[in-house]
Predict the 3D structure of the following.
Amino acid sequence: MVQYLGTTSQPGANPVLRVQQIWEVRLKRTELAPWFYNRYFRYTWPMDYSYPLLQKVFNHYYKEGADVSKAKLYSCMHLLAPQIEMYKYFIKFGFSPSNIIALGKIYSSNIEAIEELRSLGVSVVQPDFDGRAFDTTHAENCKKIALEIGDTEQNIVLDDGGFLIHEARSKPVRFAVEQTSSGFRKLENDCPQFPIFNVARSKTKLTQESPLIARQIFERVVDYAKENGLESPKVVIVGLGPIGEATLQIFKSNSFDTTGFDKETTKTELLSALLKNKPDIVIGATGSPLFSSDDVKELEGNHIYHLVSVSSSDREYPVASYRSAEGVHEVVRYENLRFVNNGFPISFKGSKNELTPVEIEKTIALLMGSVFHGVCNKSQESGFVEVPEELQDLINS
């Protein structure tokens, strides 16, 4: 018997159908009101969630009386509902909306959230989707924003992915905050002259966010499999970091035929395994380019591979080479390959809330709290510094 979230099932059952039944039971029993079930794994959330943890962190630092009226905040974030609440607290803390620049990401920004942020007076930069590889266009956009950073000691950079901090590395920045592990890897050899709060590797984010992201990945892959007639898909996960490993365990615990490969597996070994075992779904969780266009050609044949990314941007697969007029979240088709969600992380589908606010609030609190801590405490350090224990204890208490 396999048990998942309080529900049991017989081995050998159709795993996609079984997972649907499991979650129907779970959502009937859950005490996490007011979120509710809407068409198999799709959630909505009432607009009156109060974000109590953000309020708690705000109250803790606001009493310090830091003057940020002249500070300038240059940021790159997923522009979604919880992040908008963070920007509201920045303004409430004393940041002038005209001194806040927010760069969105084409694959993760929500139009309604963008308009709400603009209504606050924040300068929002939301590039159009031109079909090129995301990292190429994002680097260009970050470089343009970094050029606007003036000669003042009041500059702060808040980043998701490391590109904006990288472009600002020689600028007079007081401190920066980085959210992601991919950003950490990008920046660890940059040697900036200012401190970078390493939210990505904080204990709170690694231990508490990763299982939530893995659960979301699992739900969305199962949803995709059901919509595309994959009743008992074979799954391969490449990249066994915190999220990849957690995702692997969820699939295995629900009787999916699942194999995991660490990112150290050579490309030759991986391609050989894919050609031999013919998995239906390949999940890239390495945070790095997994295949080149030449590698992809080796997979051509009769078997259909559904390629899913769960890391940053569209760098896992060379999907830009095969795009035509597809929308941001469409499936790109090339021969026997299917690039799910246009090669972008399946975690983002254009919704205002991708995770429920109660699930993602701790991560947002880490980002917001790191900014508040930085303006309330001057640091002489440079390079990556740990998120203060004071902040993590506050969030987890």
The longest strand covers residues 173-178. The two ends are 36 Å apart (CA to CA). Residues 203-227 form the longest helix (25 residues). Residues 45 and 84 are 15 Å apart (CA to CA).
